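User: Run a structure prediction on this.
Assistant: Running it now.
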Amino acid sequence: MRSRFARRGIYWLPNLFTLASLFSGFYAIVQAMNGRFETAAMAIFVAMVLDGLDGRIARLTRTQSAFGAELDSLSDMVSFGVAPALVVYVWALQDFAGMQTVAWLGPWLTTKLGWIAAFIYCACAALRLARFNTTLEIADKRFFQGLPSPAAACLVAGLVWALNEYQISGKDVKWLAWALTVFAGVTMVSNLKFYSGKDINLRKSVPFSALVAIAFGITALFTASSTLPEMLFLLFACYGASGYAIWLYEKLTRRAAGGREPPAAPGA
């Protein structure tokens, strides 16, 4: 007797985009192993775009399914968890041995600093995805709890891509890469709030000035295409810092209100 899954089948269109995102993450790993770090970083950005499309296509065509949700989580773990960790490890974090600044840690720990940072990032990505899946029904749709894994992956990959544009070797900035990798990992599992943009209604009318600002933004993006890696890195760096800015703003607001919690927004 055929199983219920076999009778229902799967929706191929959104899952095709999910598999393409998975392939991009796998491709990034292969390119990093071959020393093509710029290509590896670009593949992670492509994976982010494809990951954003699969869910929207599923909702647009009404082809959401539990199978698609599970496949998306597994794809995200590879593309935004394993791939960025391995790319930055091969690029900059392979060996801290011989550095006088960490000699006091001893030879054993010194040689392990790189993969410790990479594993922290990878483990935090897994924990972030697991928490997201288990709190999806009760979470505030306006905000993500913790830095989203695609944004964290693009933050790490953006550093690799931007510095490769200036022919800067990963070994020359290994401490920067180490700190950013740990920062991205820890921020993923934090309780900080990051704006999701899910409350934006594209059917709602906007002021004319907003359209002018969008036009100028698109123009600036195309005219500055030669500095695209730097712009993308700065964009995701600002987004990564936005959660801390929101936390600080809310803390100062509560302090100004005498320690009382600010009133909840309508519909919260």
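The chain has nine helices and two strands.
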